[in-house]
From TrEMBL:
UniProt-annotated binding residues for ATP: L259, I281, S354, G355
Highest taxon, organism lineage: Bacteria
Residue(s) at site: Important for beta-aspartyl-AMP intermediate formation: E356
Top-tier EC class: ligase
Enzyme Commission number(s) of this protein: 6.3.5.4
Family, similarity comment: Belongs to the asparagine synthetase family.
CDD domains, A to Z: Asn_synthase_B_C, AsnB
UniProt catalytic activity: L-aspartate + L-glutamine + ATP + H2O = L-asparagine + L-glutamate + AMP + diphosphate + H(+)
Name assigned to this protein: asparagine synthase (glutamine-hydrolyzing)
GO molecular function: asparagine synthase (glutamine-hydrolyzing) activity; ATP binding
Amino acid sequence: MCGIVGFVDKNIADKKPVIEAMMDTIKHRGPNSSGELVDGDAALGFRRLSIIDISSGMQPIYNEDRSKAVIFNGEIYNFKDVRKELKKAGHVFTTDTDTEVLLHGFEEWGIEDLLKKIRGMFAFVIYDLKTGDITGARDFFGIKPLYYYNREGTFIFGSEIKSFLKEPNFKKELNKAALKPYLTFQYSALHETFFKNVFRIPEGHYFTFKNGKLSIKKYWDMSFKANNLSFEETVKRIDKSIRESVNEHSISDVPVGSLLSSGVDSSYVTAILKPQHTYSIDFDTSTYEEGTAAKMLADKLGLENTRGIVTKEEAVKSIPLIQYYMDEPDSNPSCIPLYFLTKLASRDVTVILSGEGADELFAGYANYGFHSHSKVIRVVAEDLKHLPKGVKYKLAHGLKKMPNFPGRLHLYESTAKAEEFFIGQAKIFTEKEAADLVKPEFEKSRSVKDIVMRSYSKVSGYNDEVKKMQYLDLHQFMSNDILLKADRMSMANSMELRVPFLDKEVAKVASGIPTKYLLNSKDSKYALRVAAERALPDEWAKREKLGFPVPIRDWIKTKEVYEKFRELFSADFAGEFFDQDAILKMLDGCYRGENDDRRKVWTIYTFLIWYKVFFIDGGKKPDVDPQVKVG
C-alpha cells in the first residue's frame, strides 16, 4: 500500500525538491521507501509501504523501452492471471508485482479494456515520457482516494490533498459552498472538496490529461437488476463469492489480521479468514461494549483477540490529528475508534481485513425501512410494499402527517418514495437549520435535493425504492465517508486495510438479489446473515448492528471537554462561519442536558478543528501522539 503524488507545471524550474516535499507530506502512507520521476514539465512521486519484497516493488515502474511509467496505490487481486495473458502477448516483466501488470495492460489493451480485466482496489497514474500524456484511474467503489487540481497552468494529483500544499503554485482557498451541505451530511458532499478547485476523481472513473486538457470518464457503475434465483441458491452464491473474495484479499507476504466488532460483517470475514490476530476496541465507559462481544466470538473461533481501550482524554486529544489525516472535515464519530483500532493492529500486522460495504451491497441499514422491533409492524410493512405505487405513496404521505406512534417511521419508510425522505445514512442538521446557522456568505451552495438527485436521477427507472437508496449510499455515504475514513485512519498508522465485501465479483452477486431476500419482516441484510451462519457460531449472524458506537454525549457532559469545546466555539474565527450565539447556546444546552444536540455540536466542533489545522496552523501536522491501552 502506498501514496502517489504528481504535478505538471512549466513554471517550476527545479521540480525535484517540490515532488520530494509532496512525498514527505504523505510519508505515513508509505514509510519504507520512495521513488520519483522528473521529466520535462512533469514530476511524479511515490511513497511505499512494504508488504512484499522491497526490491521488487519500487516505483515508478517502466515498460520495456522506458517510454511509459506507472505509479500505483492499491492491490490488484487477479494480477497473476492478467500477467499470464500479457506474457503470452509478448510483454516482458522485470518485477513480480501487480503494479507492472497495469502498465503492460495499458499498453496492450488501453485504459478501458484494462479496467474491465482487473479486480482490486486502486488509484494509479501512467505517464507517457514521449508525449507527456497522463492517464489515471480510481477503483470501482472508491476504496482508494485520488484528487486533482487543474488551474492556471498547474495540474496536481495525489492520494491526499495535504500534499498539494507543497506545490508553490497551488492556491489554498476555502470552498465556501462546502460548509452548509457538510452540516447536513456530516462529510464533504460535493464533487469539489473543502479546498477550492480541488476535486475528487469519482469512483469508477478514469482520467486523461493531454495537451493541458483534462478529461474524466466513467468506466463502471453498480447496476441492480433482480434475478429469479431461489433463496437457497442466493445464499449459496453469497457465501461462495465472499469466501472467494476473502481468499483473494488475504494473499500477502506478511501476516494478515482482521478488525472485529460485534456485528455480522466483520465477524463473517473473520470467521472465513481465521487469522492469528484479531482486534477490537472499547471506550473507558460502560455505555457500549463492542470489544467484549468481539472477544467472545474470537474465543469461540479459537482466535487471538487484542482489545484496545480508549480513554476520553486520548480520544479528545486525537481529534485534531484525525482531521489532519482526513484532509476534509468528517464528523462521523467512528473515525475515532477506527484510528485507535488500526493503531492497535499496527503493533503486530501491516495488512488487515474489515467489513465495510456489506450494508450498502446487502441492504443493512435501518433507514432502508427497518426501524421497528415489532414483528407485527414488520409483517404489515412487508405487505404494504406490494400495493400499487400510487396507493403506496399516498399512504406514505398520510403516515408522514400523522402523530407519532410505535412503528410509524418503519411503515412510512417502507412505503414512501425514496427521493422524498432519504438523503443517505447521515442527516445532522436539516437544510433550513444549516442555512440559519451559517453566516450569509456560506448560504449559497447546492441544495441537499440537488446533491442526492445526482444519484437518484441515474436510477429513476427503478421500481424498487430500497435499490434506489442502496445506489445513493454507494455513491454518497460509502464513497465520501465510510471508505474515506477507512483509508485515512489505516494509512495514518501505515496500515493496509482491505475490504473483501467491496469486490466486483461480490457486487455481481449482490446486484441481482431481490430486495425481498435482503430486507423483510425477518431482518435487514437477511440473506447475508443466513449465508454468514455457515461460518459463524449459532445466532451470531443475527446480532444487531451497532456500528462503532462512540460515547460523545458522555464526553460533552464532562466539565473539561465542555470547556474545551466552548473555548473553540467562542474563538473569533468561529464567528466568521456561524451565528456564535446560536452555537454556544446549543453547546451549553447539550452540556446541561437540556437538549440532545450532541451530533450537531460534534459536527460544528469537527469543522472548526479542521479549519484551525489547515487554515490557521497552516496545515501542519498536530504534535500529539494519542495512545490506546490494551485491556
